[in-house]
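Entry 14. Structure prediction run on the chain below.
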Amino acid sequence: MTFHAFIRLAEESQLAAIYATGAYVATRWQEVYEAVHLYQLPGGFFVELTYDTETNEVQYLFPFEAGSKDDRLPDYALPEK
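Output returned:
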């Protein structure tokens, strides 16, 4: 699936595609109760899935391509020592 095909899907279909074909990459914490899970999809793009740990619900999705203006991969980089 391409990035553009993915973003045209309804949110429920996007979630299904993430769970069916996405590869989990990492998690970062946005707030104490908000985990942001990073997945890479077969088309080579990424999706952040923000999850509320108190309500056990997905809050929102954010698809992006590496190197784009919306690239969030640096948020997952380890700090230099």
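The radius of gyration is 13 Å.
Filed with the rest of this week's runs.
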